[in-house]
Structure formats: C-alpha cells, structure tokens
C-alpha cells in the first residue's frame, strides 16, 4: 500500500546494508540490533496519523473499485490502532543515523493472517542456523523468503533427480578401466602389460613375438607381406613365393603394369621368363622342356638337343629299335590286325627323313616336324647302323650311317623313324606308321587326311595306354637305357613322360591329327575298333 511506504522512509537503506554484512561478514565492528524500551517521539506519531489520513483520502478520491472495500477499510483501521498501541511500548534504541529499529512484532497482512517465521534449518555440522530479523523494505512490506517457483501447469519446481534407467535403477557412470587379460599376445599367448605392442593381422603382439614365418626373426619393418595368415619379411616372402624362372633361376620380372608375367609349359608347368622364347634358348626335342642355364642338354648330330632324362631311354640306332618293333607287331596281333608282309624299319637322322618325305608322291606329314614316315616308293635311305658315342661335353661322336635301298615288293617299302627319341615316344610313332602300312596292305581305298591320320593316332594312343598300364616293355629297350628299364620296370620320369605323350595326342589342335583323333576315338569307344574299321572300309568315314 502506498501509505505504508512513507512510514519507514529514511531508515530502510541502513537496515538493508546490515543484512548484507551479516550474511557475508564484511564489518566485524558493526553491532547487531538491540531493544532498550525507548518510545518514539510525539512528532513522529503525528506524522504517522497524518500519513494514514492522507492515504485514505487519496484512495477515496481515486475511486478504485476494491472487492470488499468496507472490510478492507475496517482492516486498515485495525492496523492503524495496532500501530498506535505499539507506540506506548518502550522505544527501541536509536542508531547513529537517527533511525529507530522497528520491533519484531509479527506483522498482520491484508488478509488478516499473521506472519510465521520459517523454522531454522539444521546444517550438516549440527549447528542451528540463526536467521536475522526479517528486514522491512522501503515500501513497508516485510521481507518474505523466496518460495519455489510455480510452473504454468501448477506444479512446484522440484530439483532434477539423478537420471534413472527404464528398470528404475539409478544411472551410474561407467568406470573406465582395462580388464585383466584384455590384450593377449598372439605369438606367446602371454598378457601384454604396459609398454609397446603391435596391432596387426586382427591380433596384438609383443614386438619381439611378431616374427617372420620363413626366417623366424622379428619383423621391425614398416611393411610386411602375408601368406595364409602368416607374416613375412618382404624379402623372405619374395624368396619363398615370388616365382623364379626355371631357366635362368632369377625372379620373374614384372611387366609395365606391375604384374608378374611368365610362360609355363601346359604339361610340365615349367615357368620361365617371356624373353626366353626369343633368345634362342633350346628345348628338348622329346619332352619340349626348355634347357636350364645350369644344366646342359645333349646335342645330337642333326642339331636337335635332348635332355638327360629323355636320353636315359632314347633309342639311337636301327638295331636297338628292332625289339620295340617286335613288341608293337605283337600288339597288333593282339588286336587281330597282323601284318602279313615284313616291312623294313629304319632309324634315320632328320635330314634323311626330310629327303625321304620329298620323294613321296603321296603322304600326310605332321608339322612342324615329321618324326616318322610310311614309304611306298623305291628310294635309297641313309640309315644309322651304329649309335653315337657321347664324349666330353656330351657331344655325339662316331655315329655310323649306311645307305639302304628300298625295293617295292608291296604297297609299303619301309617305315622310317627319327632316331634319338625315348622308347615310349619312338613306340607311339612306330604304332602310328604301322597303321598306315596296315591300311595300305589291307587294300583300303585312299582316305581323307583326317580319317586316315585320325585312326592312326587312335592306334598310337592305344599302345601308349597299354604300355603305361602294363609298366613293362621289351627286355632290351636300348643299350643306353637304365638298369630299371632292362628289368622291365619303368622309372617315375618315364611314366610321367608317357603321360606327356598322351597329352600331346589329346591336346593336338590341328584339324587333321587333332580333330581326326577325337572323331576316331569317339567312334571306337562307341562302336569298337573292328566295327569302326569296317565302316571306314565301306564308307571312307567314321561312324557317328
């Protein structure tokens, strides 16, 4: 109310300052308020009466509409009488500034309720908090403690409790620690404590436990290689897995794209640098493997070279080939395909074979090199009568040749075979040429190249299969053959070599020899050899 503010004018500022000093303890010499029973002066009483009268007059003139104005006026009069009666009690002491301390009589509010002091709170140390006397502000209102704020929904502000999970448990901060055994070395299976460690290959390692699979030394390089989840030094990995050339024994270089490019034999899987196909590196004339630089092949008199493994079972002269010729004749007799006429068999050099081929009017020749011929013309052939002797540096020496004049007594004058080839290869070539002789001696009409060469390849393949299954050949293959071959057994390499010769027949891509063999082999497997030959005699084609 406006009139009440004029009662304490001039004294409210001093009381406010003391309240602040009491809260923070800024002025220790300041004395607290006390009461000695002195009364206020009469002049001040008259001032209060005039102030009340003026205030009532101002309210009446403004014409404010107040709910329950009569009751409000009655309450104001009661409050004025209470103030008047309070003047009769002892007056509080006067402070230095002339203001009198207001006694702590509980004030009456406008609604008739008496102010109730707040119960002093207890501190944690057990001492009771002593509140100071509520100060009076300049507007005449008594200090009120701040009540909790009310929100718009009518709820009283409550301090935010600790967060809770959905199950009602109070949230607890997750402790940050590393459990024992959380880092186990993949090398020694021991726990990794404090200090340096490596994290690679989805595992952790002691630095001294991360070792190369090849040399078993620790890997301290920034980069390393892996194979099968095992680590390697880059140099050790290259030594172990980077392909080396089987010819020069060096690491196969990468191409312009950074890729390892090499050549490999389709059967022997001999890897070599692409450059060796153009640097005159020789190949074995039998197995077609390239000559390694640390192993020298045996040169033959006609310019061919033979590896040491193929040389072991090679047939070098005509006389050494006669036992093999008898074995193949027996093989044909077992198929009811006996040759009635005796056909000469001669082993010759490359040059003599090429000259005999030029003298034939008819014939089919397997390129790039002819290894056998079935002759029908009369010719004089230079045949090898004595095998060469290999001296220093594996050079063939003292080979003896002699002329052999062919006379035409039948449709076939001779069978020529290139000398210096392993027994199995020589036998397959001989079985092929004997089939040419059998067809001519049995009076078959002239056949197309693919049919005649195809059925001859079928007989050569059948003989190879029979030899590899039996595991034995003639008692004396050649004078240079190993003791194992002489006893009728076959070395592991010779078995491998026989598989290579079969592979050559199967994978031949020429339309005459390759396609002809596959058509003839299919017919024989379906109808049998005898029915296939009868169909060829009648129609000149393979049965389908």
Automatic annotation (TrEMBL):
<dbReference type="GO" id="GO:0032875">
    <property type="term" value="P:regulation of DNA endoreduplication"/>
</dbReference>
<dbReference type="InterPro" id="IPR045218">
    <property type="entry name" value="DA1-like"/>
</dbReference>
<dbReference type="InterPro" id="IPR003903">
    <property type="entry name" value="UIM_dom"/>
</dbReference>
<dbReference type="Pfam" id="PF00412">
    <property type="entry name" value="LIM"/>
</dbReference>
<keyword id="KW-0479">Metal-binding</keyword>
<dbReference type="GO" id="GO:0043130">
    <property type="term" value="F:ubiquitin binding"/>
</dbReference>
<dbReference type="GO" id="GO:0046872">
    <property type="term" value="F:metal ion binding"/>
</dbReference>
<dbReference type="InterPro" id="IPR022087">
    <property type="entry name" value="DA1-like_dom"/>
</dbReference>
<feature type="compositionally biased region" description="Polar residues">
    <location>
        <begin position="89"/>
        <end position="158"/>
    </location>
</feature>
<dbReference type="GO" id="GO:0140096">
    <property type="term" value="F:catalytic activity, acting on a protein"/>
</dbReference>
<feature type="region of interest" description="Disordered">
    <location>
        <begin position="89"/>
        <end position="165"/>
    </location>
</feature>
<protein>
    <recommendedName>
        <fullName>LIM zinc-binding domain-containing protein</fullName>
    </recommendedName>
</protein>
<dbReference type="Pfam" id="PF23625">
    <property type="entry name" value="UIM_2"/>
</dbReference>
<feature type="domain" description="LIM zinc-binding">
    <location>
        <begin position="183"/>
        <end position="243"/>
    </location>
</feature>
<keyword id="KW-0862">Zinc</keyword>
<keyword id="KW-0677">Repeat</keyword>
<dbReference type="InterPro" id="IPR001781">
    <property type="entry name" value="Znf_LIM"/>
</dbReference>
<dbReference type="GO" id="GO:0016787">
    <property type="term" value="F:hydrolase activity"/>
</dbReference>
<keyword id="KW-0832">Ubl conjugation</keyword>
<dbReference type="Pfam" id="PF12315">
    <property type="entry name" value="DA1-like"/>
</dbReference>
<keyword id="KW-0440">LIM domain</keyword>
């Amino acid at each position: 109310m406006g009139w009440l503010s004029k009662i304490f004018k001039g004294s409210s500022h001093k009381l406010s300052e003391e309240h602040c000093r009491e809260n923070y303890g800024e002025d220790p010499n300041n004395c607290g308020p006390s009461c000695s029973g002195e009364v206020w002066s009469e002049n001040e009483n008259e001032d209060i009466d005039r102030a009340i009268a003026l205030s009532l007059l101002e309210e009446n003139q403004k014409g404010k509409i107040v709910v329950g104005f009569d009751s409000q006026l009655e309450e104001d009069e009661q409050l004025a009488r209470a103030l008047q009666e309070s003047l009769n009690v002892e007056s509080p002491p006067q402070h230095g500034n002339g203001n009198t301390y207001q006694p702590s009589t509980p004030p009456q509010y406008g609604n008739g309720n008496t102010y109730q002091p707040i119960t002093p709170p207890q501190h944690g140390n057990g001492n009771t908090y002593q509140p100071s006397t509520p100060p009076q502000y300049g507007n005449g209102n008594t200090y009120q403690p701040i009540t909790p704020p009310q929100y718009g929904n009518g709820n009283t502000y409550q301090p935010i409790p600790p967060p809770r999970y959905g199950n009602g448990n109070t949230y607890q901060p997750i402790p940050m620690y590393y459990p024992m055994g959380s880092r186990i070395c993949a090398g020694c299976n021991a726990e990794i404590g404090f200090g340096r460690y490596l994290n690679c290959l989805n595992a952790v390692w002691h630095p001294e436990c991360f070792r190369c699979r090849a040399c078993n030394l620790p890997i301290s390089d920034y980069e390393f290689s892996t194979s099968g989840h095992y680590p390697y030094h880059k140099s050790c990995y290259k030594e172990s897995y980077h392909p080396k050339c089987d010819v020069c024994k060096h690491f196969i270089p990468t191409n312009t794209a950074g890729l390892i490019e090499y050549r490999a034999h389709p059967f022997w899987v001999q890897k070599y640098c692409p450059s060796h196909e153009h640097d005159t590196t020789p190949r074995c004339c039998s197995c077609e493997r390239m000559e390694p630089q640390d192993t020298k092949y045996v040169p033959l008199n006609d310019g061919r070279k033979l590896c040491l493994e193929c040389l072991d079972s090679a047939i070098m002269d005509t006389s050494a080939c006669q036992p093999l010729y008898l074995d193949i004749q027996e093989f044909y007799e077992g198929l009811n395909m006996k040759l009635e006429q005796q056909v000469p068999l001669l082993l010759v050099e490359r040059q003599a074979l090429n000259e005999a081929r030029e003298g034939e009017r008819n014939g089919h020749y397997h390129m790039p090199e002819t290894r056998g011929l079935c002759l029908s013309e009369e010719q004089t052939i230079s045949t090898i009568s004595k095998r060469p002797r290999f001296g220093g540096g594996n050079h063939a020496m003292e080979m003896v040749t002699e002329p052999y004049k062919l006379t035409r007594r039948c449709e076939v004058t001779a069978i020529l075979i290139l000398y210096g080839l392993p027994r199995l290869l020589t036998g397959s070539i001989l079985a092929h040429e004997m089939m040419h002789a059998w067809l001519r001696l049995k009076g078959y009409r002239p056949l197309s190249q693919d049919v005649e060469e195809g059925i001859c390849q079928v007989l050569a393949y059948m003989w190879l299969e029979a030899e590899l299954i039996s595991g034995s050949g003639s008692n004396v293959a050649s004078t240079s053959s190993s003791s194992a071959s002489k006893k009728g057994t076959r070395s592991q390499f010779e078995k491998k070599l026989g598989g290579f010769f079969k592979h050559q027949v199967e994978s031949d891509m020429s339309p005459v020899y390759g396609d002809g063999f596959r058509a003839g082999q299919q017919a024989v497997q379906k109808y049998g050899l005898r029915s296939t030959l009868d169909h060829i005699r009648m129609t000149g084609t393979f049965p389908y």
